[in-house]
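Re: [ENG-882] Designed sequences occasionally contain unexpected residues at chain ends

Forwarding the minimal case from QA. Structure tokens:
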């Protein structure tokens, strides 16, 4: 398996992948956490920012991001998690939970990827974002049109920060975004780019001389996959660490919802743009 979307830290060990068949083109929650914490430390205005975290303790991705975020933030006492709220709690009270965050310098909102039977975690995360005026560090599971549609009446520019692996306007991404938009008739997001990259790697292995058409041969060639040029970012390569993680992904692109200024667009809509970018 070459996953373009599974980001849980230590995927092979957590899922007991003893046969080492799992690989991914995206970075892990560790990189996501590091990107968010770096932004927090540079923009909170506080030397040791305090954070309240909203997450789903019943879901693996959300738990993983919370664990990595807390670890990175509290390393060397850079900051501190002063409170935790469960987005999946049966008795969740928005007023009560937000009341616990009065002393916080920022909120971390990490809903699951809506992979559970209930979407309560996601919609409760939206409610948290709607009702706070603090800096919000969001999970990549919030990088959806659904998020923008639910928050269209809010000013969230540089206040809701999400870390993603690829963005069409990042330097070098035009090598993929420009031709891709001709096929999709519109903007493509990081999920499309990472899926394309994962598919391309598999195709290259299948077409490689000497590779047999069976799972064992494909896995062996993935394990020894030589760094190759990425098709979604210019001057970037693709290769895998021994544990199947992506080698080159050590930082993410930070995006934030912005109301477009282009008069041809509906100004009531939001779109994701790179944080502090002059052009969107």
């Amino acid at each position: 398996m070459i996953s373009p979307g599974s980001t849980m830290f230590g995927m092979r060990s957590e899922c007991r992948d003893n046969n080492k068949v799992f690989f991914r083109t995206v970075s892990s929650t560790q990189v996501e956490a590091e990107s968010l914490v770096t932004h927090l430390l540079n923009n909170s205005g506080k030397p040791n920012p305090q954070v309240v975290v909203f997450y789903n303790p019943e879901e693996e991705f959300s738990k993983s991001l919370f664990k990595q975020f807390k670890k990175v933030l509290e390393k060397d006492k850079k900051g501190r998690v002063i409170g935790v709220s469960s987005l999946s709690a049966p008795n969740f009270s928005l007023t009560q939970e937000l009341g616990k965050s009065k002393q916080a310098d920022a909120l971390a909102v990490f809903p699951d990827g809506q992979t559970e039977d209930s979407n309560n975690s996601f919609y409760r995360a939206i409610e948290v974002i709607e009702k706070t005026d603090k800096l919000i560090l969001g999970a990549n599971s919030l990088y959806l049109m659904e998020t923008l549609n639910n928050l269209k009446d809010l000013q969230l520019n540089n206040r809701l920060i999400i870390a993603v692996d690829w963005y069409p306007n990042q330097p070098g991404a035009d090598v993929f975004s420009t031709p891709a938009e001709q096929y999709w008739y519109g903007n493509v997001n990081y999920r499309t780019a990472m899926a394309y990259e994962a598919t391309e790697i598999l195709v290259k292995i299948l077409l490689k001389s000497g590779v047999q058409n069976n799972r064992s041969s494909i896995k062996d060639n993935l394990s020894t996959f030589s760094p190759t040029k990425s098709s979604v970012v210019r001057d970037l390569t693709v290769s895998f660490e021994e544990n199947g993680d992506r080698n080159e992904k050590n930082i993410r692109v930070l995006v934030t919802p912005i109301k477009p200024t282009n008069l041809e667009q509906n100004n009531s809509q939001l779109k994701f743009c790179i944080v502090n970018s002059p052009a969107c």
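QA comment: On inspection the terminal residues look reasonable. The mean pLDDT is 90. Proposing we downgrade this to a documentation issue.
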